[in-house]
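pls design
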């Protein structure tokens, strides 16, 4: 039996020169060390659980369109296993100022209720 330690082992992935060159070109960087770590959040909402990932590693083509930070998420309902997933840019320009919507999006995900609430089911007759 494998003992759980609560720690993840860091595994080194070796990329060949062609894969590395392709990544450098896609992200418009000179070294893979310029890539930022992902931020992972466990999300518990009204009747679902899931995750959100914040990614600052934006491909060059998307950077040209003004994307600076992306959110990906997926919530799975506790009982039916229905899922609600999505992604998008979370830094937007409002009234000429850049606004980071990360805290608002994370808080909003905690309020998601998938499907009809129990109250709705009991009042429908």
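designed seq:
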């Amino acid at each position: 039996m494998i003992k759980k330690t609560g720690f993840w082992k860091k595994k080194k992935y070796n990329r060949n020169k062609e894969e590395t060159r392709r990544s450098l070109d896609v992200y418009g960087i000179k070294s893979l060390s310029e890539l930022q770590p992902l931020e992972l959040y466990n999300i518990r909402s009204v009747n679902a659980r899931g995750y959100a990932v914040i990614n600052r590693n934006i491909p060059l083509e998307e950077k040209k369109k003004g994307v600076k930070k992306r959110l990906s998420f997926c919530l799975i309902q506790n009982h039916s296993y229905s899922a609600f997933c999505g992604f998008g840019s979370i830094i937007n320009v409002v009234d000429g100022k850049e606004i980071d919507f990360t805290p608002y999006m994370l808080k909003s995900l905690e309020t998601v209720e998938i499907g009809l609430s129990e109250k709705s089911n009991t009042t429908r007759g």
